[in-house]
């Protein structure tokens, strides 16, 4: 059964996650894959227009069996682009499934020295994660001016790009879950659920103290960098948040901050159009 369009006769830029996006019609499309450490996200690009995004957490069972249920395509996509920070085992499972099911190659996206209006700031461009590279490409095309791109996932990454599209560098720190887990696993008297959340400024129990404290630490990290980057560049700065923990940070960050949940997929879409 072929996939249906995101809406009648049109494709949309994804603003929300749906369980199983499907698209109908002849498949001359590009499947975009964002394989993170925790979740696999995907969307379809047709003539540069992106369908609503889908997402699934990695299961303990065989990934390929899960893909057969998620992507019951009767006709193969023309291309499959992948931005991956997932383990090599998961990447190879994706490759085997794509190539055996559709007989098209899986195209890993790697950071370039310069492409799509972005100049990579790493001394060894290929060391920049594919997800960060795709996010920078999308940000460059979505918002003018100097940008701070913060991906709030398993790790929290922060990348700065000036108004001319030059990537000035970035930082990586543990994500909210890793901050909480490190306390629960490496301290004798601190116990709790790393996935639990709490609200407020100060906590009155240990679980909430870890939850709120890790969130405030991450917010402080982002705000400090925002301030220093604004002083460094001497221009206004827009911050773009993506990743699973972005909704937790968004209400706590001041200034020009916006949430783009499918930023990596949007970057892959731009890269796909430039490679067609």
Descriptive key words:
disordered N terminus; 5-stranded mixed β-sheet; Nucleotidyltransferase, domain 5; 24% strand; alpha/beta; 2 domains; 7-stranded mixed β-sheet; 276 residues
Would you mind describing this structure in some detail?
Helix 3 packs across helix 7 and helix 4 crosses helix 5. The protein has two domains: 79 residues, Nucleotidyltransferase, domain 5 (2-Layer Sandwich); 157 residues, 2-Layer Sandwich (Nucleotidyltransferase, domain 5), CATH 3.30.420. The protein is 33% helix and 24% strand. The chain starts with 16 loop residues before the first strand and ends with a helix. The chain has 276 residues and is an alpha/beta fold. The strands form three sheets. Strands 1, 2, 3, 4, 5, 6 and 7 form a seven-stranded mixed beta sheet that branches. Strands 12-11-10-13-14 form a five-stranded mixed beta sheet, with helices on both faces.
N→C terminal distance: 27 Å
Determine the CATH superfamily of the largest domain: ATPase, nucleotide binding domain
Largest sheet: number of strands, sense, barrel closure: 7 strands, mixed
Shape: globular
CATH topology annotation of the largest domain: Nucleotidyltransferase, domain 5
Ranges with pLDDT <50 over ≥5 residues? 1-27
- The tally of structural domains comes to 2
**What's the rounded overall pLDDT mean?**
85
């Amino acid at each position: 059964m072929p996939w249906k369009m995101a809406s009648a006769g049109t494709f949309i830029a994804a603003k929300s996650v749906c369980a199983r996006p499907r698209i109908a019609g002849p498949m001359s499309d590009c499947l975009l894959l964002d394989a993170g450490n925790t979740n696999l996200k995907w969307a379809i690009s047709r003539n540069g227009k992106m369908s609503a995004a889908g997402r699934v957490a990695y299961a303990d069972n065989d990934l390929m069996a899960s893909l057969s249920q998620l992507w019951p395509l009767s006709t193969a996509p023309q291309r499959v682009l992948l931005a991956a920070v997932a383990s090599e085992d998961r990447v190879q499972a994706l490759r085997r499934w794509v190539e055996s099911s559709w007989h098209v190659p899986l195209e890993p996206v790697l950071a370039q020295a310069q492409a799509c209006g972005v100049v990579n700031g790493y001394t060894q461009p290929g060391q920049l994660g594919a997800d960060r590279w795709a996010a920078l490409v999308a940000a460059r095309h979505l918002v003018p001016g100097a940008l701070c791109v913060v991906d709030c996932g398993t790790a929290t990454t922060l990348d700065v790009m000036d108004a001319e599209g030059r990537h000035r560098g970035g930082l990586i720190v543990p994500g909210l879950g890793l901050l909480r887990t490190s306390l629960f696993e490496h301290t004798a008297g601190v116990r709790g659920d790393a996935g639990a959340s709490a609200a407020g400024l100060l906590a009155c129990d240990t679980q909430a103290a870890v939850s709120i404290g890790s969130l405030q630490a991450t917010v402080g990290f982002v705000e400090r960098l925002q301030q220093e980057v604004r002083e460094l560049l001497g221009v206004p700065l827009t911050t773009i948040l993506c990743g699973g923990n972005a909704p937790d940070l968004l209400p706590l960050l001041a200034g020009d901050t916006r949430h783009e949940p499918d930023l990596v997929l949007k970057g892959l879409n731009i890269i796909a159009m430039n490679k067609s």
